[in-house]
Design a protein that fits this description.
It is built from 26 helices and 21 strands. The protein is α/β, with parallel strands linked by helices. The chain has a 7-stranded parallel β-sheet with strand order 1-5-7-8-9-10-11. Helix 1 packs antiparallel against helix 2 and helix 8 packs parallel to helix 9. 52% of the residues are buried.
Amino acid sequence: MTEPRSTFPHGTILGYPRIGRRRELKRAVEGYWAGTADAQTLEQTAAGLRRATRERLAALGLGRDDSSIPESFSFYDQVHDAAVTVGALPERFAALRDADGAIGLDAYFTAARGAGDDAPLEMTKWFDTNYHYLVPEIGPETVFSLSSDRFARQVAEAKADGFIVRPVIVGPVTLLALAKASDASPQGFDPLSRLDDLLPVYAELLSALRAAGAEWVQLDEPALVSESLPADAAVLADAAARAYAALGVRGDRPAILVAAGYAQLSREAWAALAEAPIEAIAIDLTRGAVPDAVPGLDRKTLVGGVVDGRNVWRGDLDAAWERLQALSAVGASEISAGTSTSLQHVPHDVSDESALDKRLASWLAFADQKVAQVVTLATGLVEGRDAIAAPLAEASAALADRRTAPGVRDGAVRERAAVLDAGDFERGDYDARVAAQDAELALPVLPTTTIGSFPQTGDIRRARARHGRGELTADEYQRFLRDEIARVVTLQEDIGLDVLVHGEAERNDMVQYFAENLDGFAVTENGWVQSYGSRATRPSILWGDVSRPTAITVAWSAFAQSLTDKPMKGMLTGPVTILAWSFVRDDQPLGETANQVALALRDEIADLEGAGIRVIQVDEPALRELLPLKAADQPAYLEWSVGSFRLATAGAAPATQVHTHLCYSEFDVVIDAIAALDADVTSIEAARSRGEVIGDIRASGFAAGIGPGVYDIHSPRVPSVDEITDLLDRAVAELPLRRVWVNPDCGLKTRGYDETVASLKNLVEATEAVRASVPA
């Protein structure tokens, strides 16, 4: 290192929500895609959001000129940003590069969304969160080069506005560890083998950032905490040691902070980073313990992630302070207070929630409140604990109030859960169920269906908003919804689907809808959190014991069934997914909360059966998502997560066909758990990965009904009949014919009707062709 490095601030966050307090980026990006806004308008909106974020963070107490403010903006996804910056664009999109080889916005978005016959990049979950990232495709043929100057331009933009920011970039080890081998790769190729080829481009990027005015850079390396990736801890640690030895010795770079959130760093990676010629390491102290002292820490600043970046609870600031004190004993040169992860996983500001119960609101901390907590702890590190005694005491008082508030513990709910026995989790012999269901439903071979939701049109959203404002009476709104359901049922019959759905027009969100109808939950007005790309959700807040006051879905499903002789699916969201896509109470084990939700769903299933519904889908797309990153924690998770699903569904009659659905995760790790759910039919994402999961299903011996998705609903593309036929041919070649179902990858809520109808017609046509080609 040939030049002195600036000191690290006493407090920072690892990232901040980037879609805007009112989803301004979503609207701008979707306007650009639709052609109603040009690139200049999109760039101006994005620049305005970045400026507003910097000003807000400065107002909350982070410094304008000390690199404590992260520059963590993205138009779509941080992994995609890094891949595009280093030129890792699949060959099928190579022609979209600019004349000088740069990758502009059109190529960036096309790779994310696909175009024509060119499928988009695969999408999966970011570690154990509900955030989705685009999976880079890297092979021996990938030519790495600095292909975008966007990171440097944003640093320069901030500097022109009077801010010295810290750009946040996915690090080289994590980028390669999360990548998949390109189609041109030989069997067994590991993208991590390209590390030495990638590092010169990262070095060039760091130099450009320094020239633009960055004094620090944050390289995110959460791969170093995970035990669920193909590479093991020792391999990843060795890669980190090589990467940061090479980058750290450069003199033309900013100071380097390596951030490793989401769990505890492996011992090997901790030792490697401590020895590396970098200046700071950020670790998660909410999901990991204070690590042991190792050589090299005396030259490092340690950022203790004591403020949880993934939940919305105000938390115990006293305990956070004590963890920082414990961290100071491991021998680092400096200690800084920070968040455990980026705050992209939480909403912007509790003060935006005027409708929340004020007592509940006092227990919460969204992104802005967490920034304030970091600033408080940083003040304590400089001035001593006495200087922050008042806010620490206030946080402790809120925690005590939460423990004793009415509804947090419900005696009746707890008594019901306490008397459960093994029989409550068992449904009966699978073959006997199949026989009963075949007799009841009389479905053809390769039955066709959809996952549940149909497009949420502007008319639906406007009617819901008008009803919320009192402009539509309850009766008027009900008539509107019945008309919409009738239209969707007729459409499915016309297309020729075999098992129908009612389309879920009455539902704003597959979790929020249930949260609004279950005790123990609260919902937000503006609590938006990015899920992927331009999509955002409003996770509900599960704050107390859960129960079901009355039936939730029965009336709509019964009405839809009355319109058709074909089977109508009742649609429920499973207990694990309700937990995963909510902000869940942290004062009891997740398994206890999951069983409370499962009992409420069990009651709903019984009522659906009573109303004549004979196919019931209980969606669990988040089953893989919540799998702990540490292998030692996984068996207990799989036990309670599978158990909660079985508790919800085990009361169903043998002739009732229970479906479940999973999407956008790596399933090979949990294929045995999927089988253990004991669902009669499982639909699963497979189109974007071009059917890769089918081999895993076959190898596992999975014996129940299975619907590998043949239509990628996260892209606007309409899959051709031939494309769907190819996927179906693969499925029937590798799986028992009588067990295969035909369905899209996921619900159709986010799609438009033109593409949906065209795609479903192609799905039915392809199915009829494959039926004709297989033995009767």
